[in-house]
Every structure is written in structure tokens, then in C-alpha cells.
Automatic annotation (TrEMBL):
Lineage, top ranks: Bacteria, Pseudomonadati, Pseudomonadota, Alphaproteobacteria, Acetobacterales
Alphabetical UniProt keywords: Membrane, Transmembrane, Transmembrane helix
Membrane topology: Multi-pass membrane protein
Species of origin: Paeniroseomonas aquatica
PROSITE patterns: MFS (PS50850)
Protein name in the entry: MFS transporter
Amino acid sequence: MSSAPRRQQRATRIAFFLAGCIMAGWAPLVPFAKARLEVSDGVLGLLLLGLGIGSILAMPLAGAAAARLGCRFVIILGSLLACAALPLLAVVAQPWLLLAVLLVFGAGIGAVDVAMNMQAIIVERASGRPLMSGFHGLFSLGGLAGAAGMAALLAAGAAPLLAALAEAALALGALAVAAPHLLPQGSRSEGPAFALPHGVVLAIGALCCIAFLAEGAVLDWGAIFLAGEGAAGRGLDPAYAGLGYAAFSLTMTIGRLTGDRIVQRFGPRRVLVAGGLLAAGGFALAVAVPAWEAGLLGFALVGAGASNIVPVLFTAIGRQTAMPESLAVPAVTTLGYAGVLAGPAAIGILAQVIGLSMALLLVAGLLLAVVVGGWRLRELG
């Protein structure tokens, strides 16, 4: 293999790591934002809609822009937007400002997500061997580094703004290394850039939506749950509450980096069913045992169980014939991100009515639908 493909693979891995790191940097800042704004769980949930709305609005535009202007352009632009927004998330003190910044932050993350996956498809196809699980494993590794690094800075006494600036600066440094070897072109295909999913593609998209919702529940509410008092939380110091997402990211990273071998040994159907059961059990453990250690273990189990759900489902997209792959992939990606859009707000509203613990249990119940759907999905082979 020539040096050019190797450099492109390395740049793709950096892009995935970068996206995970920037996104996870927001998780430890959520309790500080809630305290600064002095809002309820329900209001915070509505404000968190901004991240999902920004992502979903940006995705179709990012796909079209990457096809016309190249993956490199979209990844750089999206990363710059997200890195600029992260420090602002650490200081804004008005609800409408937080919503506005989350829209920009989500748009940057969503644009990078689409473009880096387009680049990953091109690079993997050129290599002639499986690379996708490893790429997504780097996203999870970035999530681990972003959440743990931010939590470490905050625990050491750094102000949220200083911690966010440090993480954004490191991300921009990584972007500078990767940029020269990101692809100047994007995937090109005939027909519309986006289509509504139908048939089995709709079913796969719905399962992806649940998986994204579970991940979003840990990202946006894990720290709130661990730092909360009484029956609604575990009383952990807010400076350490981001470790919940770090534990989730650690086990998800390990699961994805070993995912290809696991799927090859046990088969995609068993991996999907077992993963859904394990993730549901993780939420149940976090809620049922009134100790922050159990919360960390529960979120770790969620990460382990959810790690290969989305990769296995994307493999199923390639096997289905209901829609062309060029239309099915962006459609399912957008539907999956609907979980990021609806999940945080829904959990916040439910937390107002039945409590955060019960809201997280409902997420566990939705993961059981992944178990049933995975067992019946013929495209898993």
C-alpha cells in the first residue's frame, strides 16, 4: 500500500477522534450550565434540543456540500464551528443564548459526522478491507479522552471556560495535522441527496434512533443523574460527574475496537441481541442501586452493549435492497440522529413528571425493542 492511502486512513481516524472529543467535551459542562442558568430539568431538556436540531439541519446540507466541495472542506468548517462554540457553552448565562450556541455546536458536529463517514466509506472501499469499526472506535476513544480530560481539568480546579478553551485548542491542533490528507472530493451518486426511509430501511433507522437516544441519554443526563441529590441522583461531586460518560465511552471504545472479531465469531444477530440486553441492563443497574459506583458501572455496561449496535445495523443497510445505498445511508443517519434530537428533551420532560430515574428506565425499555427488532431483521444474515 502506498503512503497516500495510509495518510488518508490516518487522517480519517483523526477526524473521527476529533469529532468524539469535541462532542464529549460538552458532557461535563452540562451540570455547570444548569446551575448557571438556574433552570429545571424540563427547561434544560428543551434547551438541549438545540444540539439535535443543529445536527439534523446541517446533515443534508453537509452531504451536498461534501459531494460538491469535498470532505476536507466540510470537516474543517464543521470542526471550526464546534471548537468555537465549546468555550461559549462554558460561559453563556441566558437560556436563549445557550440554545443558540447549542444550535451552532450541533451544526458543526453534524456536518463533521456526515463528511467523515463519507470519507470513511471512500477510504475503506479503496483499501479493500474492513476499516469502519476501527474508525468508529476512534470516535469513541475521542469521546473518552474528551470527557475524561475535561473532567480532570475541572477536578483540578480549572474554570469551565479554561477547560473548554484547552480542549478546543487541542482539537484544532489535531485538525491541522489531519487536514492536508483529508479527501478533497466526496462521494458522488446520481439522484437526490436525501430521501425518506421506507420498508426495512425505516426499521433499521428506528433501531438506530433508539441506539442514538441511549447514547444521548448518557451524554446529556448522565452527569445530571450522578450529581443529583436524593432519589433523583447519586450525590456525586459535579466536578466528577462527567466520569459517567467517560466510563460509557471507555467500554464503547473497547467494544468497537474489538467489534469486527466479535461479530465474526458470534454473528451480527447475536451481537445485536446481546448488546441490546446488556445496554438495557446497564440503565436498570444505574437506577436500581443507590450508589454512584453502581451508576458508573451501569453506564459502562450501556457503552459495552451499545458499542456494536450501530455498526451492525449499518452493515444491514448494505445488505438491504429496498433503497439504494446512496440514499439509505444518509436517510438512516438522519433518522438515527432524531434520537439525539428528541431524546434529551423527552427525558427532561419525563423527569419533571416521573423523575429522572424512571425516565432512564424507559430508555432501557426502548432498548428491548432493539433486541426484538434485531432478532427479526433478516438483513443481519
